[in-house]
Amino acid sequence: METYNPAVIEKKWQEFWRKTDVFHATLDPSKKKYYALVEFPYPSGQGLHVGHPRPYMALDIVSRKRRLQGYNVLYPMGFDAFGLPTENYAIKHKIHPAEVTRKNIKHFRDQLDSIGFSFDWDRVINTTDPDYYRWTQWIFIQMVKHGLAYKKEVPINWCPSCRVGLSNEEVVNGACERCGTAVEHRVKDQWMLKITAYADRLIDDLDTVDYTPRIKQQQINWIGRSHGAEADFAVVAGDKETEDVLTVYTTRPDTMFGVTYMVVAPEHPMLEQYADAIENMDEIKAYQQQALLKSDFERGELNKDKTGVALKGVCAVNPANGKRIPIWVSDYVLMTYGTGAIMAVPAHDSRDWEFAKKFDLPIVEVVAGAPVPVEEAAFTDVSEGTLVNSDFLNGLSVKDAIAKMIAFLTEKHLGKPQTNYKLRDWVFSRQRYWGEPIPMVYCEEHGWQPIPEEQLPLLLPEVPNYQPTATGESPLAEMEDFVNTTCPICGKPARRETDTMPQWAGSSWYYLRYMDPHNNQELVSKEAEQYFGPVDWYNGGMEHTTLHLLYSRFWHKFLYDIGVVSTKEPYAKRTSHGMIMGDNGEKMSKSRGNVVNPDEIVSEYGADTLRTYEMFIGDFEKSANWTESGVQGCRKFLERVWKMADLLTEDESMDKETEVLFHQSIKKVTEDFETLKFNTAIAQLMTLSNALRAKERVTRTEWKTFLLLLNPVAPHVTEELWERAGFTGHIATDGTWPEYQDDKLSENYAEMPIQINGKVRGKVVLPLKATQEQAVEAAQKEESIARYLEGKKLAKVIFVPNKILNLVVK
Ligand code: ANZ
């Protein structure tokens, strides 16, 4: 046979798949469906590097295998194309972002096609297409109508370099996620989405889905639900107890008797309120100025040198024992969490402890059982320890003391049980051009109104300049034609919202559109949603666990509440992949010069080699370093497979010697493909191919089975070999996934030496449980033995099961 030439084979089969449209998922409720989803890419100007397709290959394997198992598989792909890099590129090169996007998508599509994915391209979506974002806008309007979208003056995270407001999620260590510039705080009127209304359901419904444990845990941590109490501390100004109280949020009401001071955030309104009574207001003002410069992240950090100022002339009263305690202002207390004020218990809270040590404040132990005295370290373990120095709580465990103190506060009207969340409402406005216009209009008389739904999509107008304005307004603000409109209620002149949506908007519901991408009546038809939903398996990056995944679960739950979708959760299963690093072990990036372009690998070694290598490179959930020698190894494997075609015999049945290995391989590959163990599945196929080559013949059933098992990984070469072997049809159109037999999973056969009159004359292969009669019968049939029996009389039979058969003849 000629040599393996992937360049020719791969084009041929990609063309075949395209022509036969085999990967198109039809809406056919008579067939069992399987919906596999991968995160759609942002079509950047750089194109794909070899890290991007790793997750696509994984679910391509699952999709191809499921199709062979008879499923109607929906495996779609699209482009998440709104976003800053495109806009920035457009600004720099003076090309319209839509033009940039078109070019980039074309490039991505070519790259993806060359790798041979089984995507259903009839369903491709692009979030910047008005037919798509019309529905993104529609969902926003439904949220407005249900009170989940509202406008609010909020201090936002402002990136002075991108000139854009960022959500908390887009701020990483106090810097802009995209460009790394330190984030400032600014007050702006923003559209907000009330994701907090769904906080409990976003945690509780995790019990109903199959997500990798660390993904679940990250979501839980991000939402940050904590149970505790609010407690009121009376404020004393001068020497008089006022009517006012300072309310704190605490998860440890049991430690109330250990409170030795209070702390308010620098932004706390009580400071303004008591400005007259506070004697050192100048000092406080100076401190407030300083705090403004720090991000919440910096402020919350442990082990950071604590700063603060004590209020002079104002103090508070501990509601448990009536003692007067000082009030401090310090930036380790955030205005954005709880009530912006805390009761400090230095003996049992590490940050309070550090603060107390620095400013020499009293430390009172109220939970006994610390391994070292509380003067040396805070004792924070709540599972051990007994309350002391705490009046009516003495002797109780922490758990019981919490309950008792909450009951006490509630009864005395000094507090109440309270649940808090770290999760904040989602800042949904962006002052950028390249995003979905927010379909809202402001009327002097009727306030903010959504535009009538018949007017959707609200098109993004062409602007001469995409540059964000110096005032921080979106470029749309300068387009009078766009801005000036009429009020949908009274018809009088009104102004349009000029902010656009964040990039997270389009990706919050895209999996629904794939189910029914061309529907111009609805976002998705009931029929399509009920058939294809929910997504059976969604794989994506770990970095999207707290942003995209949470946002899309929130939108889905809202759509469930208004009857658009029929399931409570969008994704039945979610997994994550590890990254592919450069050959130097560092993250692939242009600046590090370690980027590998898949195009080069495809043209030098072939797509099947690239696919095999990326799936063989290591544990799918862990990161792995790219090595060229690894690529070469996989290419060699496929070349050996190619040459195996020369060993093909006319026999149909499986040879006994490799039958068990075959059944074991079917089982292992079938299971490993479903449990992210692509590497061990491939290793098994390598072992199997070695065994087949060792026996120097491959029967037709063996060859067929082997090609089917390898097909999801290396679809082109296996189709070619299938065709050359003359098997019926093609794998993609006619193949059926092989099944193993339980009773063939272990060695059931043994070779038995046959003796004639005490001398070994040959051997037979017998089932392990063979009886004496079966053994004798097999021996008589065996040519090498039969000669010795000819014309003789069988006098005696000595049979040791599974070991030996001795025939005594005369
Ligand atoms: C007294 C106390 C004693 C606390 C103790 C802890 C341990 P989570 O679990 O994250 O909800 N806290 C409350 N509001 C705060 C704010 N705005 N900025 C900074 N810290 C704040 O944490 C709740 C605990 O964090 C609260 O319980 C409070 O300190 C602090 F041994 O109250 B605790």
Bound molecules: ligand ANZ
Helical amount: 25-40%
N-C termini distance: 54 Å
As a percent range, the share of strand residues is 15-25%
Q: How many β-strands, per DSSP?
A: 32
Helix/strand-derived category reads: alpha/beta
Summarize model confidence as the mean pLDDT.
94
Please describe the biggest sheet, giving its number of strands, its sense, and whether it closes into a barrel. Answer: 7 strands, mixed
Helix tally? 26
Unreliable spans are none
Q: Assign an overall shape.
A: globular
Radius of gyration: 35 Å
Short note summarizing the structure:
The chain has about 800 residues and is an alpha/beta fold. Helices cover about 35% and strands about 20% of the residues.
Topology:
Layout lengths: L5 H15 L12 E6 L14 H16 L3 E3 L3 E2 L4 H10 L3 H19 L9 E2 L3 H16 L3 E11 L4 E3 L4 E2 L2 E2 L7 E10 L5 H6 L5 E2 L1 H11 L2 E12 L2 E11 L10 E4 L5 H4 L7 H12 L3 H5 L8 E9 L6 E6 L11 E4 L5 H10 L7 E2 L17 E2 L10 H14 L3 E6 L5 E2 L12 E4 L3 E4 L29 H4 E3 L6 E4 L13 H4 L12 H7 L4 E4 L7 H14 L11 E4 L3 E2 L16 H8 L1 H10 L7 E2 L2 H17 L11 H19 L3 H17 L5 H11 L4 H11 L5 H4 L14 E8 L2 E9 L4 H10 L1 H7 L4 E7 L3 E6 L1
Parallel strand pairs: 1-2, 1-25, 3-4, 10-26, 13-15, 25-26, 27-28, 29-32
Antiparallel strand pairs: 5-6, 5-9, 7-8, 9-20, 11-12, 11-14, 11-19, 13-16, 14-15, 17-18, 21-22, 21-24, 23-24, 29-30, 31-32
Helix pairs in contact: 1-23, 17-18, 18-19, 19-21, 20-21, 20-22, 22-23
The protein binds ligand ANZ.
The site of ligand ANZ has 17 residues, from strand 12 and strand 16.
